[in-house]
Amino acid sequence: MTTLLSRPETHYDVIVAGGGAGGVGAALGAASSGARVLLIEKYGFLGGAATSSNVLAYCGFFQQGPEPVKAVGGGADLVLNELRALGLNCDPFRSPTTLNWIILLEPEAVKLALDRVLRANGVDVLLHSRVAATTRTADRIEAVTLAAMDGRRRVIGEAFVDATGDANLALVAGLPCRTGSDMGHLQAVTGPIRVGGRDKSVPIDRSAIIAAFEEYNKTGAYPAARPDGGIYTEVPRTGDMWWMMYDCALSDLSSESFTKAEQSARAAAHDYVGVLRRHVPGFENAYLLQTGPQIGIRESRHPPARYELTKEDLLTGRLRADGVARAAWPIEDHTVPGNPTYQAIGGAGYADIPLDCLRAKGLDNLYYAGRTIGADAVAYASVRVMGTAFASGEAAGRAAALQSGSAGGAGQADSGGAGVFWGVKTSV
Q1: What are phi and psi of 258, to 5 degrees?
Q2: Which of 48, 49, 277, 345 is least enclosed, having the fewest CB within 10 Å?
Q3: Cβ neighbourhood burial of 285 (10 Å; 0-12, 13-18, 19+)
Q4: For the chain, how many structural domains are there in total?
Q5: What is the pTM of this model?
Q6: What pLDDT is recorded for position 51?
């Protein structure tokens, strides 16, 4: 049978590239506004860093502080509700390492939950597909050419959202992109792992981990282990140890650099688990259970936006009439591998992300979501996280639906946590 998606050329109101938190938020935002939506993802599953890079925590849903204050809702709540139906708690968890509030994840539940939520909201999804080319006029994208398992196909759209993280859609559309910071420096990449075989009756001894890796970093083959023992928690349902311990500098975006980083992260993972086995009580029978399908990338390309959120916006907690999402995660800087630093958001504990951060400079019908939104090097260290990406994505999807002419009413927004959408206040 020939399905709608298998035809040589199809037409959508909104086409979203990238199926991470930003892309899922955008697809849900556009669909809830009445748009016919296509979501394109290069992997065989959705979820972004949570499923492709073993980053098993949603950051940015809550503000800093002694109690969790919610900053993101709307379409993201649909995802959390589905995760709860699959057995995850999804309550705020305060990291004992950073004291930030996160939501702990299990990747297989995330994959299935996103499939279900998007299907329930009428979003068409194409996995194993990526944007290979665009057709455009001077100020608009008219269509994208997809490289898929069955060859190439052309899909026409009225509005587009780049939620690829790496600005792939903006890049192939011909927009000039900045690599890393203004100085070309990239945030470090990280190789989170899962460790099995731990004796769960023995509490994890952070001091023993610190001491063991103080010695390892002197003579070991991969002396990039975090000196504080890293960030670790138990994976929901399985009880495995989730551990962020290995960081690596990335000099550029070449395939050679990524190959070296991927191979080093895998080798380091085996080394590090060996250190646990030999020196940390309770890990005598530990083994490496899983690395991510790819290393955790924090930063790559930045496409041109009509406004870049600034360090001052965040440190002062700037609120704006044109805000569409809340940035509540602290400024988490990984300039120095293995030594992350944090700066709190000022004001009320969050800053507004204005609509122009989501609007492409140079193309009228292209929007950004997640890691692609406009931000300077400091502000980017806050807005890149997945919780915030859900919010910026939902706002981008709603704006794209309005651009396409498919939305039910200009300026409508009821996405809790989206802040202000075209002057219309929304509740968290």
Answers
A1: -65, -40
A2: 277
A3: exposed
A4: 2
A5: 0.94
A6: 98
